[in-house]
């Protein structure tokens, strides 16, 4: 039986716990939250031991793996502690909010011989698996445009919780909301290599941006735009790819000028968060990398941080520059 712990169990960690419990041969045995009061419902639901300190849980329990579901800017410290304790780690997006912290996580996992995966469950849908295969096979022709739009709304109370919207613990709409879609765009196209960004805070009292517009260049020559905001109502989110032979737009496939219904490709371990957690657990058992491994999960963080640097410096930034420009991210 693979014994699993949840760090940050009182929030989205409960979704991770439910996914783990749905998988044969895995069980949630422990979790952490900020207080005894907040961990109690989780402990009761899963018949698990509750803690208020992740290090205490790592020392007391005979765990095989953990999910990290705490505020984004705390991920690296916890992940390094877990790796040093010999635990495999599945970390919520983003891996962390600064690239040196992300690199430290990856180095710790490598040094201790444990698996580190990053959550990007929006990849795990048949339509997106199919779109990626079509890009690889050239069925859309040469990609000309690649765009994503994340037009969401968050009330001021969302940013008054003492971590959302704060740079050291989070960031703004790009790194918290849009990063799922930045990851999709990077994954579907084969990589984003250059960005030019403008960011602004238009509707909230917060340290970081609630509006970002990023022009991008992909490694395959496609160009595109990332639009991200948490300041509008009635907006949508989508990913769109346009090529010389066809297009994909969040579920719709077009070849030449006709919409088609493709034979959809199922993700190998299932869909959504449950599918990604299942892949992570199978990766541990099979001693292989998870589908979204640490270096793969790092790519979207690099694109976002390059965008932050571009906005501050007022010039285009190559994604590969992100480490030397960390002071501007």
From TrEMBL:
Domain Gfo/Idh/MocA-like oxidoreductase N-terminal: 3-116
InterPro entries referenced in this protein's UniProt entry, alphabetically: Gfo/Idh/MocA-like_OxRdtase_N, Gfo/Idh/MocA_Oxidoreductase, GFO_IDH_MocA-like_dom, NAD(P)-bd_dom_sf
UniProt keyword GTP-binding, yes or no: no
A Pfam family that the UniProt record links to this protein: GFO_IDH_MocA_C3
UniProt-recorded Gene Ontology molecular function terms: nucleotide binding
Aminoacyl-tRNA synthetase is among the record's keywords: no
Alphabetical keyword list: Plasmid
Occurrences of domain GFO/IDH/MocA-like oxidoreductase (ranges): 130-248
Protein name: Oxidoreductase domain protein
Species in which this protein is naturally found: Halopiger xanaduensis (strain DSM 18323 / JCM 14033 / SH-6)
